Amino acid sequence: MSSFKYKVSIIVPCYNEEGTIQLLLHAILKQNFPVEKMEVVIADAHSQDATRQKIAEFQKTYPQLAIKVVDNPKRTIPAAVNVAANATSGEYLVRMDAHSVPYPDYVATCLQDLEQGKGANVGGVWEIKPGNQTPMARAIAAAAANRLAVGDARYRYSNKSGEVDTVPFGSFRRDLFFAVGAFDETLLSNEDYEFNARIQKQGGKIWFDPTIRCVYFARKNLRELAKQYWRYGYWKFQMLKRYPHTLRWRQALPPLFVIGNLFGIIFSFFSKGALHLYLGVLALYLLALLGAGIKEAVKQKDLAHILYLPVAMMCMHFSWGAGFLFSAILKK
Q: What are the tens digits of pLDDT across the range 278-288?
């Protein structure tokens, strides 16, 4: 794209991001896209830390980048996206995250793909980095990009462009966003997946371009990871009740895995055969995780992955599956 004739509004949900919000704003300022054609709208959920102060400091130092902060009283991500979108003036919306750092050509490439009609919603690759440098945080980041942990979610590992079921964050025309119906605020997670399902229902494509890249900081510890993946699983079931045809094999395996373990443990008390079968399957699972840990340890020259990566993967599998099943049992 050579003319850059359209204005872009970058919308950012935000809550307690004092450590990363300026990293994002600096990355936006460094985009190879005219700064006068960009605005940033941050929907803040009443942050309790110094997030707003950090934003104000950046605005004072770099007044050339238009930044607007709006309140998100509902304090959820879909509500943040909607309230931010309502405050925008650009023809295109580019959704970003407060703990992500886009590459310099991120905005320009998104608009180029949209203008070329590759998709109604365009996105790219998460380069997942650890939230800090502890062995567990490094393993969580590695697990979040490993197919054994996340299945065929291409935006976490792929270098092949094409049509997909979802992309992280996403970019789209502002008029399309409101014509489709904005984000569903009753879904506290999986809201982007559900939004994409509505786009596809109306004949639009979701396009994955691996040259669109951003760094994303993963959770720092198992507690944060478990909460995140429980939430993913819980709200995935709620979304699937509306769009059952969107179920993918990667989403069915974790709840089946949790069920398998529950029945395996129960039947093992009544049958030695069941016990041996269960222990055999469990051993194969643990060996697969260990193999992934060894492979990642060699690849990244980080021996800690041998121990910590399997633990992170188990946490992801069990939390996602348990959250999904709990959501199904509640039948909300």
A: 999 999 999 99
Is position 203 within any domain?
yes
Please, are residues 25 and 67 in contact by the beta-carbon 8 Å criterion?
A: yes
In the DSSP assignment, the letter for residue 278 is H
- E strands, 201-280, are 206-217
Sequence-ordered list of residues with C-beta below 8 angstroms from that of 330, at least 6 positions apart, any chain: none
Range of the domain at 12: 8-220
Give this prediction's pTM.
0.85
For the chain, how many structural domains are there in total?
2
Report how far residue 212's alpha carbon sits from residue 158's, in angstroms, rounded to the nearest whole number: 12
Q: How far apart are alpha carbons 13 and 77 in whole angstroms?
A: 6
Q: Do residues 150 and 233 make contact, with C-beta atoms less than 8 angstroms apart? A: no
**Are 203 and 289 members of one domain?**
no
Digit-coded pLDDT (tens) for 229-264: 999 999 889 888 888 877 777 677 888 889 999 999
Smallest CA-to-CA distance from 23 within 47, 64, 51 is with 51
Which residue bears the tokens 């295109």?
Answer: 92
Q: Are 203 and 245 part of one and the same domain? A: no
- At what angle are helices 305-330 and 249-268 packed, to 10 degrees? 90
Q: How far apart are CA 143 and CA 231, in angstroms?
A: 18
